[in-house]
């Protein structure tokens, strides 16, 4: 893969919220996880393990639990914000990632943080979060490279316990997100990104690029407006060929 191909994979990754029913070959899942395990981690701790969920009943239980805990909480909290700043995903209604052929659940063993320097042990939860973010991103990119769509579904800390109970995960492990995966049922609209010049500084921070609180609020409002104005393109072909 040359640089342009890699850049295209990165830029084409989107949060996909509707999937085709086509099954994902086991070979693809193995390839994705084999690449993901090469993610960087502090002290090469490699805290990750993966639960691959295909059973329809378990996928539905995961969605129902998320709906009852994280999604409902997000909906309530979003109503406290200005309407033009509310995150559309938290107000769109029932999530449907149980329809995804596969849900990958990355989990991280907190004990592996001791592979790193002693100074980080008091912050092992934060270091574990960083490590798990790395491996989750590689899962996303590997899936996109194979023509699949993925969604980043965050699991908030108050909800970790119920998800651990549902999936039989030992207490010492943490779960920060789940990854519904499948062939996209639509072509997602282009994503908005800030211009490179606006976010790049030379040698030290350039105060001319500092944004006021008001500008940050305006930026968030622009994100919401841009997202709501985008239109996804439905895919009439329901086959899994990509």
Describe this structure in words.
The protein is globular, with a radius of gyration of 19 Å. The model is unreliable at 237-242 (pLDDT under 50). By secondary structure, it is an alpha+beta fold. Helix 2 packs across helix 4. The chain has one domain (3-188): 3-Layer(aba) Sandwich (NADH Oxidase), CATH 3.40.109.10. Helix content is 39%, strand content 12%. It is built from seven helices and eight strands; from the N terminus they run ααβαβαββαβββααβ. The chain has helices at residues 3-12, 26-36, 56-78, 124-145, 160-167, 196-199, 213-229, and strands at residues 48-53, 102-109, 149-150, 153-154, 173-174, 177-182, 186-187, 233-234.
Average residue pLDDT: 86
Q: List unreliable stretches of 5+ residues.
A: 237-242
The total domain count is 1
How much helix, percentage-wise, in residues? 25-40%
Structural class: alpha+beta
Distance between the termini: 18 Å
CATH first level: Alpha Beta
How would you characterize the largest beta sheet?
A: 6 strands, antiparallel
N-to-C order of helices and strands? HHEHEHEEHEEEHHE
Number of discrete helical segments: 7
What is the correct CATH architecture?
A: 3-Layer(aba) Sandwich
Instruction: Report the portion of residues in β strands.
Output: 5-15%
CATH superfamily: NADH Oxidase
CATH T-level fold name: NADH Oxidase
So what's the overall shape? Answer: globular
Total beta-strand segments: 8
Radius of gyration: 19 Å
């Amino acid at each position: 893969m040359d640089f342009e191909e890699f850049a295209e994979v990165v830029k084409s990754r989107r949060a996909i919220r509707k999937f085709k029913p086509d099954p994902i070959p086991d070979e693809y899942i193995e390839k994705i996880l084999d690449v993901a395990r090469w993610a960087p981690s502090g002290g090469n701790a490699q805290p990750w393990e993966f639960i691959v969920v295909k059973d329809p009943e378990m996928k539905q239980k995961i969605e129902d639990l998320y709906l009852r805990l994280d999604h409902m909480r997000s909906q309530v909290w979003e109503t406290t914000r200005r309407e033009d700043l509310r995150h559309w995903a938290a107000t769109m209604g029932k999530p449907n990632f149980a329809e995804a052929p596969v849900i990958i659940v990355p989990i991280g063993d907190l004990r592996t943080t001791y592979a790193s320097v002693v100074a980080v042990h008091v912050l092992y939860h934060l270091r574990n979060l960083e490590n798990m973010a790395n491996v989750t991103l590689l899962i996303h990119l590997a899936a996109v490279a194979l023509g699949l769509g993925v969604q980043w579904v965050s699991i908030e800390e108050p909800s970790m316990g119920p998800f651990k109970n549902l999936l039989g995960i030992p207490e010492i492990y943490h779960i920060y997100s789940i990854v519904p995966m499948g062939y996209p049922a639509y072509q997602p609209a282009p994503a908005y990104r800030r211009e490179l010049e606006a976010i790049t500084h030379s040698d030290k921070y350039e105060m001319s690029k500092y944004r006021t609180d008001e500008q940050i609020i305006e930026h968030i409002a622009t994100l919401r407006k841009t997202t709501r104005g985008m239109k996804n393109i439905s895919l009439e072909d329901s086959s899994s060929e990509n």
